[in-house]
Amino acid sequence: MASRFSRATAFGFVAAALLSVAVVAEPGDAPDRKPDDWLLNAPDDAARFKLLQRYLRGFDQPMWEVGERFESIYDALTDENYELAAYHWEKIRTTIVNGYLKRPKRQANADALFVNGAYQPVLDGFRSKDRDKAWDAFELARNTCQSCHEAEKVGFINNQPLFRKAPPQQK
What we know:
There is one protein chain. The protein has 6 helices and no strands. The protein is mainly alpha-helical and 171 residues long. The protein folds into 2 domains: 2-56, no CATH class; 60-163. The protein is elongated and about 65 Å long.
């Protein structure tokens, strides 16, 4: 019994020592570093953070996601899938709020026009499951998006097919 305890104890100490070295070691110090480890190969955390900031970019990527989800809302409403429209609308809010973490100067207009403005009425329109109310909510969403683009002095974004989509004709 004593020898089992000794071996287990010795193994535990060796494992703990190896773990502590792995935790303390810098990622760039690992012998298995690869040239593709673009982030880990940076010389220090400050350089890594700069790389991450550049990689994550600005507000354009969140707006790309918003555009994709806006298209999905249009399709969901066309299919009378109001739950899906509400789902994408909720995700659009999350995307915009997360987006202005990266570009705080966008927050004032996003909050005023969208988060504290049109967000809840549009969500209510989709959740009503009433075709006319849902499409009215879609129009409010589109107008809000376009107003925010104008307020942010990027009105040229409004000149694209995404904003020319009209509700389908009444059946």
